């Protein structure tokens, strides 16, 4: 019997299919070759590596869990594994892929007209067209049902007014999926970003997800034809269903950042010496590493379990909350503990740990905060809603 591998203690790789392993390996190799060495600089310069979009499209990672229209149509577990490997590079890179696939392509694929799908999805799958998802507003985050952005009918046109805040890919996007309040309820609109009245302003001075492009969208009398509305959905369940898709990717992705921090700490603990021996030889360091390994591997088992349930068509949104809540928390704990093992070096961008730790603060907040997912599960357990 061979000894367990400290980098895959439970042998989770053996639980994957050949195709799943191949996808994970391809993305891992890409990240090691094209991302790892540069991620610190992109973070420091607040620069999104646009030049990688084509390669990401060529690997089939954009809208990879969707079928038809040039999308790869792989299973949910493979999508999760790809998110994990991308986020081992940087949460900003994974955010780009999550937003493109789950928040921009998914609503078009699920709720769009045939024309909308043909017009946008193949180019988006190739990475030639970029999408963003505008739900959050400057004054409405956790409670998007109370949004202020409006969509008014004017003859056969729609006219949109309002503002959206913290929109990932906002300044990169060719097409914005904007959710607005119409007379009949919340509707989704496909807004080409060159439409008069639409502007995207980069949000600067972020201390987290610096590699990711994050924008404020302003809509001032944005006039759209009837064909811009997503015909297949009305109400808050439209945007919420997209968020459930993206969150599923996050519950895997966050563990990629966690794994990168664990591995950095493991490497450091076996090479850094104090008091005449590697710091990994001290009991307190070992306790930290063991705790990280326990939580990382439990999180991976959870992700795989939820992936298998999603692939069998039986993953209720509350369990996505369960996964996001647990795995982002796990990843943050690992990143913070890894930082203490690297001590002073831990705060440097020469090492990935502090960058991941900072990024994970955004991951904890977006796609439903830790508090909101706690309340989702609290409601499931007790039958009582504690939101209001
Ligand atoms: C880097 C980044 C990228 C993002 N990308 C996107 C994007 O692409 N598209 C998009 O639409 N949005 C995006 N967001 C926005 C994100 O989804 C929101 O920040 C999130 O929903 C929280 O909203 P808020 O920041 O307005 O906080 P608020 O909703 O104001 O919450 C403030 C605090 O109050 C708590 N709280 C709120 N309501 C309750 C309650 N009922 N009970 C208990 N506690 C409560 C929250 O948990 C939080 O701790 C992004 C955010 C970040 C940071």
From TrEMBL:
Highest taxon in the source lineage: Bacteria
Every Acyl-CoA dehydrogenase/oxidase N-terminal domain range: 18-128
InterPro entries: Acyl-CoA_Oxase/DH_mid-dom (IPR006091), Acyl-CoA_Oxase/DH_mid-dom_sf (IPR046373), AcylCo_DH-like_C (IPR036250), AcylCo_DH/oxidase_C (IPR009075), AcylCoA_DH/ox_N (IPR013786), AcylCoA_DH/ox_N_sf (IPR037069), AcylCoA_DH/oxidase_NM_dom_sf (IPR009100), Glutaryl-CoA_DH_mitochondrial (IPR052033)
Keywords of this entry: FAD, Flavoprotein, Oxidoreductase, Transit peptide
Domain Acyl-CoA oxidase/dehydrogenase middle: 132-222
Acyl-CoA dehydrogenase/oxidase C-terminal domain: residues covered: 234-378
Listed GO MF terms: fatty-acyl-CoA binding; flavin adenine dinucleotide binding; glutaryl-CoA dehydrogenase activity
Required co-factors: FAD
GO term, biological process aspect, one: fatty-acyl-CoA biosynthetic process
Protein family per UniProt: Belongs to the acyl-CoA dehydrogenase family.
Xref: PANTHER family: GLUTARYL-COA DEHYDROGENASE, MITOCHONDRIAL
Record-given protein name: Glutaryl-CoA dehydrogenase
């Amino acid at each position: 019997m061979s000894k367990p591998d400290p980098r895959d203690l439970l042998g989770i790789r053996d639980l994957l299919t050949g195709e799943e392993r191949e996808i994970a390996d391809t993305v891992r190799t890409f990240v090691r070759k094209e991302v790892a060495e540069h991620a610190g600089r992109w973070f420091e310069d607040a620069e999104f590596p646009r030049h990688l979009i084509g390669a990401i499209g060529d690997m089939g990672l954009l809208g990879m869990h969707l079928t038809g229209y040039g999308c790869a149509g792989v299973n949910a577990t493979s999508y999760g594994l790809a998110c994990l490997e991308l986020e081992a590079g940087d949460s900003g890179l994974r955010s780009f892929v999550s937003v493109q696939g789950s928040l921009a392509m998914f609503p078009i694929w699920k709720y769009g007209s045939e024309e909308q799908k043909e017009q946008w999805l193949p180019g988006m799958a190739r990475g030639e067209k970029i999408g963003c998802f505008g739900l959050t507003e400057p004054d409405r985050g956790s409670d998007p049902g109370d949004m202020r952005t409006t969509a008014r009918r004017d003859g056969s046109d729609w006219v949109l007014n309002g503002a959206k805040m913290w929109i990932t890919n906002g300044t990169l996007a060719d097409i914005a999926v904007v959710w607005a309040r119409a007379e009949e309820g919340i509707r989704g609109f496909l807004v080409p970003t060159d439409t008069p009245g639409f502007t995207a302003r980069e949000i600067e001075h972020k201390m987290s997800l610096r590699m990711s492009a994050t924008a404020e969208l302003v809509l001032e009398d944005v006039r759209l034809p009837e064909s811009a509305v997503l015909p297949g959905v009305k109400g808050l369940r439209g945007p919420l269903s997209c968020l459930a898709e993206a969150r599923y990717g996050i519950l895997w992705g966050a563990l990629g950042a966690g794994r990168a921090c664990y591995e950095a700490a493991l490497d450091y603990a076996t090479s850094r010496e104090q008091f005449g021996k590697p710091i990994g030889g001290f009991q307190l360091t070992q306790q930290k590493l063991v705790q990280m390994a326990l939580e990382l591997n439990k999180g991976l088992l959870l992700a795989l379990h939820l992936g298998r349930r999603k692939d069998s068509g039986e993953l209720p949104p509350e369990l996505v909350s369960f996964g996001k809540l647990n795995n982002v928390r796990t990843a943050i704990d690992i990143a913070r503990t890894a930082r203490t093992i690297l001590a002073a070096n831990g705060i440097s961008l020469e090492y990935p740990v502090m960058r991941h730790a900072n990024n994970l603060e955004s991951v904890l907040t977006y796609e439903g905060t830790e508090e909101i997912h706690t309340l989702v599960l609290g409601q499931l357990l007790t039958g009582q809603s504690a939101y209001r």
